[in-house]
């Protein structure tokens, strides 16, 4: 469904504008000033387009780094590929046999890695969306003797610069993988539910659990963490850990409804935002804006919040139309004035120009 405030051309414009304004001429520099993400622009954002044809909750989604594609995974065992410039669903692929939980793009815009959610097969799969073919299986998270639950993968992060990725499971292991090999390239044992993430350069990865974020050099991970950062006594289950695009900040969400932001170099605790806690079966997700100046997050009550990273203050909040389905999955589109939320429907949020009179026609 398309909000009449956001005709397709406007939707396409906002998809392009953040990247268009980055280069060199005087006019382009002036345009960057007029379109730079600000509190006013963030406060104006509304749902510009939504897809309501989901039968179940969206469990995961990912934007491709360099194309206009978005992929979603949902509890009806489907994977869907979208082109956000045209606002169309390009393909739906069902994974009824294995189920689907987490999904991430590889460097190729129609190839993904996804985790199972069927209760009997913990494998990760490399899937070509182009022809619906499995290119590789990754098996390793299977030590169910140490896990009272099915040892499903609860965290997955791909390195944007190399063909490697890292996965964390309820079996209390973190595995390092090369997309070209079926067997894992490294194994780390943890003492809790792990949240994992590569930084954008692929040189460092983080593992969060038990109230701490452990920083590893990807080239020497077997030597253990080179830094361990405390998150202020919050020992609830880690849900999501992420780096900002420039690698200077790191964000951690926990099941108790806390979103922590730290300096990734010094470990300095910069701020903590609080939302409604999530259930043990849900994940609290948050995301940095492309410039790292703002953080957005879902909440256990289905609301969406935005904060200024610099001041630590809440900038705005939105009550989702699907708030009864729990915390939405939330992702900011790389390099664009748009973020997406997923619950029982998929929504794209863009600025409403009618609320931004000072920006219209500004040169």
Automatic annotation (TrEMBL):
GO terms for molecular function: chromatin binding. Transmembrane segments: none annotated. Its main location: nucleus. Keywords: Nucleus, Repeat, Signal, Transcription, Transcription regulation, Transcription termination, WD repeat. It is found in: Nucleus. WD repeats lie at residues 51-92, 287-317. GO terms for biological process: DNA-templated transcription termination; plant-type cell wall modification. Residues 1-24 form the signal peptide. The keyword Zinc-finger does not apply. InterPro entries: Swd2/WDR82 (IPR037867), WD40/YVTN_repeat-like_dom_sf (IPR015943), WD40_PAC1 (IPR020472), WD40_repeat_dom_sf (IPR036322), WD40_rpt (IPR001680). PROSITE patterns: WD_REPEATS_2 (PS50082), WD_REPEATS_REGION (PS50294). GO terms for cellular component: cytoplasm; Set1C/COMPASS complex. Belongs to the WD repeat SWD2 family. This is Uncharacterized protein.
């Amino acid at each position: 469904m398309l909000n009449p405030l956001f005709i397709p051309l406007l939707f396409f414009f906002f998809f392009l504008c953040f990247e268009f304004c980055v280069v060199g001429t005087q006019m382009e520099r002036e345009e960057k000033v007029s379109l730079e993400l600000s509190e006013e622009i963030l406060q104006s954002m509304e749902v510009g387009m939504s897809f309501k044809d989901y039968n179940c909750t969206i469990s995961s989604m990912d934007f491709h780094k360099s194309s206009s594609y978005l992929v979603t995974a949902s509890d009806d065992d489907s994977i869907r590929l979208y082109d956000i410039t045209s606002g169309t669903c390009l393909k739906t692929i069902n994974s009824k046999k294995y189920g689907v939980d987490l999904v991430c793009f590889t460097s190729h815009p129609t190839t993904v890695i996804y985790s199972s959610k069927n209760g009997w097969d913990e494998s990760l799969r490399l899937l070509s969306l182009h022809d619906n073919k499995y290119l590789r299986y990754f098996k390793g998270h299977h030590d169910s003797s140490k896990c009272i639950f099915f040892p499903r993968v609860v965290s997955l992060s791909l390195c944007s610069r190399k063909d490697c990725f890292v996965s964390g499971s309820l079996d209390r292991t973190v595995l390092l993988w090369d997309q070209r090999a079926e067997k894992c390239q490294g194994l780390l044992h943890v003492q809790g539910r792990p949240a994992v993430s590569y930084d954008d350069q692929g040189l460092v990865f983080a593992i969060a659990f038990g109230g701490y974020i452990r920083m590893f050099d990807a080239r020497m991970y077997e030597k253990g963490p080179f830094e361990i950062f405390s998150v202020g006594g919050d020992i609830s289950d880690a849900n999501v850990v992420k780096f900002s695009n420039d690698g200077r900040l790191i964000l951690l969400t926990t099941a108790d409804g806390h979103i922590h932001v730290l300096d990734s170099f010094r470990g300095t605790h910069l701020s903590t935002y609080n939302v409604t806690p999530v259930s043990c079966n849900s994940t609290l997700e948050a995301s940095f804006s492309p410039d790292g100046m703002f953080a957005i997050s879902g909440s256990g009550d289905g609301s969406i919040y935005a904060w200024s990273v610099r001041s630590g203050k809440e900038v705005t909040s939105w009550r989702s139309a699907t708030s009864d389905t729990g915390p939405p999955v939330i992702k900011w589109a790389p390099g664009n004035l748009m973020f997406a939320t997923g619950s029982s429907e998929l929504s794209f949020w863009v600025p409403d120009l009618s609320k931004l009179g000072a920006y219209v026609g500004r040169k």
